[in-house]
Design brief:
The chain is of the alpha+beta class and 712 residues long. The chain contains 15 helices and 27 strands. Bound molecules: dioxothiomolybdenum(VI) ion.
């Protein structure tokens, strides 16, 4: 079946500790802002205080008077950037303001303090124009994007009109911020071209050294190999560092003022809420039509999502609708609103996460309406082939995840009625949701293997480890491909001068980079045998994934939640989360578990805590710090457990592995919302779930009989 021979699995499968763990926990791994530089210059951003309009004047007199200020760069003196550049990166090019919080000037100074103070006293005058910053389901500004898929199969309206049971509801998800611990930061330096031709070096916090080098090169009209991007250590990204943001561009712009000197810029935590990208809010109409037994006759998913005027970003929430369940009719599509707001971007499971919330809460509503157990409902709607393309699924194991998960979680014997369990003053309920994430292996990844003598090897690939364990896992893969112990192999990543690699995104890293590493190791052994001379090397590049042409390939999972809701206050707490996943072979149980549990933790954040709030009057996110934008802390976390099916996906790649980075977040919010409904009878269709949604409880809940809260 497999097009490539499978890897021996010796190091692969072992719970190896992180290669760079000690450096990180001892604070000695240098992050982008911290790379040593003699005589650095510091940069601080000046950002717009209006949401739309024109800059009429920038007065820098007070700034120039501050000791240590080197220069102010704004649209009047910035270099002209290529019109082919990413519009989000084309900073300081005109007097136009497109959103509140946009960079309108930058201050360079000899100290971070002088730069910050200098930025504070830059006086910018605006001619303000009316703006639009609230996403509405009925706005005239909504448009159908050209490059997002529309699905039309069968007659959904007919099915909705005649079906025994229907669900037709609107689900909404908020703006969310990735909030990695390491802020978006960069150290930029222009130099004379050396022998490698590099003129601009960026030490960047990025999920893609090569992608960032390409984007910045385009911006400045350079060849990609004239820009070198290094990112060996990245303190979290979650998608928000998948593409460069404006800080990378303005650092490079500012560094032109001080050639030869390193310019350092780290976004403040507050600036990250506007300039680092965010998960776009959505309003999703979700429809289900079913017969009395819960067999689906139709699925409809109409997504409205926030985009920006600077750049179109489509939150692909309807991706889930195509492959999850069988149904003879199916429609899905998108409308976007290009608002006067900051630019959205990828955030862990972009599309799938908000889409699955709508899909799987709707399925829970259908289960309740039909009187069918939620797991049995999914069994009844399991498709034989991919419903949209008709292609076979490879390794579709959703039902196994649901069944094995149900057993491990303790699902059987669950009373399907809501509001039947009270523990003291807490309602208790359980919920389930499916999870899925596409299998992605990107072509065009290159790896190099070099013999270092004395049985040691170095493997090089421009991959990124954003805290996932990628470098550790690549070493295990390389060791097995070379048939050497892991201790004999060093892996170098995070540098655009290394062989080209694709982004640490789409949960594609292990598959994409690992395939290149295996190919390079195999070529090395062909070319140099088992006793290579020191210094010899081999390279190999991967091509397109053939199996992905013939099969529809996804990872699947089942998310279970136990939720407690306080009878008096409506406080919602997760008591327990359990996820059962199918991701192909697990290369490293320690780092994979950390990915699953981390994803589920983030899912719990989306369920109960995270929701960015835009004030439409001013157009910016007002919850722009971690005191008002809440992510889960230790005290918020229940017991979170993840397990996986023991499997090898032989169709996927030589490692037999799919991805683990994103599937952990998908479905958690739905499982929690479904459990909260089961606990209380209150159906919440907007994230996050909050206390006030559970204050007015249905009066006839069985568990309330005799409880003082029933008479309150
Ligand atoms: Mo992930 S949101 O694809 O970096």
């Amino acid at each position: 079946m497999s097009s490539v021979p499978a890897l021996v699995a010796d190091a692969v499968g072992r719970p190896e500790p992180r290669v760079e763990g000690r450096l990180k926990v001892t604070g000695t791994a240098p992050y982008a802002y911290e790379v040593p530089a003699a005589d650095p210059v510091f940069l601080h951003l000046v950002t717009s205080t209006v949401a739309k309009g024109r800059i009429t004047r920038i007065d820098t007199h007070a700034t120039q008077a501050i000791d240590g200020v080197v220069a102010v760069v704004d649209h009047t003196n910035a270099p002209t950037l290529s019109a082919d550049g990413d519009p989000e990166l084309r900073a300081l090019q005109s007097d136009r303001v497109a959103f509140r919080g946009q960079v309108v000037a930058v201050v360079l100074a000899e100290t971070p303090e002088a730069a910050r103070e200098g930025a504070r006293v830059v006086e910018v005058t605006y001619a303000e124009e009316p703006h639009l910053a609230d996403l509405r389901a009925d706005g005239p500004e909504l448009y159908k994007p050209d490059n997002m898929p529309t699905v039309r199969q069968g007659d959904l309206d007919g099915a909705m009109a005649t079906a025994a049971v229907t669900v037709d509801e609107v689900y909404s998800t908020p703006l969310e911020h990735a909030s990695p611990m390491e802020p978006h930061a960069v150290t930029a330096r222009w130099t004379e071209a050396g022998s490698d031709g590099v003129v601009l070096t960026l030490d960047a916090s990025t999920q893609s050294a090569h992608g960032t080098a390409r984007a910045i090169a385009t911006l400045f009209g350079l060849d990609p190999d004239q820009v070198r991007v290094r990112s060996p250590y990245v303190g979290g990204g979650f998608g928000s560092k998948g593409m460069p943001h404006v800080h990378d561009a303005v650092a490079a712009i500012a560094a032109r003022v001080v050639p030869g000197r390193a310019v350092k810029l780290a976004m403040t935590r507050q600036q990250m809420f506007a300039l680092a990208g965010y998960r776009a809010p959505t309003i999703q109409r979700f429809r289900l039509a079913a017969d009395a037994d819960g067999r689906l006759l139709g699925i409809g998913h109409d997504v409205i999502a926030q985009s920006s005027t600077v750049k179109e970003y489509g939150e692909a929430a309807a991706g889930v609708t195509g492959h999850l369940y069988a149904a003879p009719s199916r429609t899905s599509g998108y409308r976007l609103a290009a608002l006067d707001v900051a630019v959205p971007t990828w955030m862990r499971a972009p599309g799938e996460m908000p889409g699955m919330f709508a899909h799987e809460v709707a399925m829970d509503e259908l289960a309740a309406a039909c009187g069918v157990d939620p797991i049995e409902l999914r069994v009844r709607n399991e498709p034989e082939t991919d419903p949209v393309s008709g292609k076979p699924f490879a390794n579709r194991r959703l039902l196994e995840c649901l069944r094995a998960g149900a057993q491990r979680f303790g699902w059987s014997g669950r009373d399907p009625r809501p509001g039947t369990r009270l523990d003291g003053d807490w309602f208790v309920g359980t919920g389930v949701a499916a999870s899925s994430f596409p299998y992605l292996r990107f072509p065009g990844n290159r790896a190099r293997v070099r013999a270092d003598g004395e049985g040691r090897f170095t493997v090089q690939i421009g991959a990124a480890d954003i805290g996932t364990g990628a470098v550790t896992v690549l070493r295990q893969i390389a060791a097995d491909a070379l048939e050497r112990p892991t201790a004999a192999v060093a892996v170098e990543i995070g540098d655009s001068s290394l062989p080209s690699a694709t982004v640490a995104g789409g949960s594609s890293g292990t598959a994409s980079w690992g395939s290149a590493v295996v190919a390079a190791a195999r070529r090395f052994r062909e070319e140099h045998g088992d006793a290579p001379r020191p210094g010899v090397l081999s390279e190999a590049e991967t091509n397109a994934d053939e199996a992905a042409q013939r099969y529809v390939m996804y990872s699947f999972g089942a998310q279970f939640a136990e939720v407690r809701v306080n009878v008096w206050t409506g406080e919602v707490r997760a008591a327990r989360l359990f996820g059962m996943f199918s991701s192909g072979r697990i290369i490293n149980p320690r780092t994979a578990r950390s990915q699953y549990v981390g994803g589920m933790t983030m899912g719990l954040g989306s369920a109960l805590l995270e929701g960015g709030v835009i004030d439409p009057r001013f157009g910016h996110v007002v919850t722009q710090d971690l005191a008002s934008y809440h992510v889960p802390s230790h005290a918020d976390l229940p017991r979170i457990e993840a397990e996986w099916l023991d499997e090898v996906d032989e169709l996927a790649n030589p490692m037999g592995a799919r991805g683990v980075g994103e599937i952990g977040i998908v479905g958690v919010a739905a499982a929690v919302a479904n459990a909260a409904w089961h606990a209380t009878g209150v159906r919440v269709r907007s994230l996050p779930l909050t206390t006030e949604q559970f204050v007015d409880l249905p009066g006839d809940l069985p568990a309330l009989a005799g409880h003082p809260a029933a008479y309150a």
